[in-house]
Amino acid sequence: MPNSSNLPDAGSKQPQLQKTFRDQLPPLLLLTSIFFVNFLARIVLAPLMPAVESDLGLGHAEAGSLFLLVSLGYFTTLLASGFITCRLTHKQTIISSNIALGFALLFTSFSTGLWGMRLGLILVGWRQGIPWKRP
Q: Is the pTM of this model over 0.70?
């Protein structure tokens, strides 16, 4: 027979520990939309590549190097991600990485030449390498 002293009293007001799906929907939608913007920043260049090539007068190899630069930034930040996330909380990591993405995308969109775009894409890659969870 279970010990009745461990069971909550029927008349006591215990805080509700279970949250409904409706309560969890706003944070879930926020994190899903952040992931979507993060993923979109990596793949948006591919369908725009013919226009980027013609506007900047690039060849296929130079245009392909833009993808390499995003991957290079992503790779270098992944190497340092453990050092970054052990010093920031989960919330600080999400906020700082998304603010950094906003600035990197603004910098890239306002660049007028190839070198500005290259630097902006490295910054986008750096931002995407920061994980959202602690190791």
A: no
With both helix axes pointing from N to C terminus, report the angle between 114-128 and 45-56 in degrees, rounded to the nearest 10: 160
Contact assessment for residue 107 and residue 119, using Cβ atoms and an 8 Å cutoff: yes
- φ/ψ of 4, rounded to 5, equals -75, -15
Note down the domain range covering 100: 53-135
Is residue 108 one of the residues assigned to a domain? Answer: yes
Per-residue model confidence as pLDDT tens digits over 93-129: 878 888 888 899 899 889 888 889 899 989 988 887 7
* DSSP-based three-state secondary structure for 66: helix
Question: In angstroms, rounded to a whole number, what is the distance separating the alpha carbons of residues 4 and 9?
Answer: 9
Q: Domains in the chain: how many in total?
A: 1
Q: Is residue 34 a contact partner of residue 98, using CB atoms and an 8 Å limit?
A: yes
Q: Can you tell me the distance from the alpha carbon of 128 to that of 135, in angstroms, rounded to the nearest whole number? A: 16
pLDDT digits (tens, 9 = 90+) for 37-65: 777 877 887 888 888 889 888 898 988 88
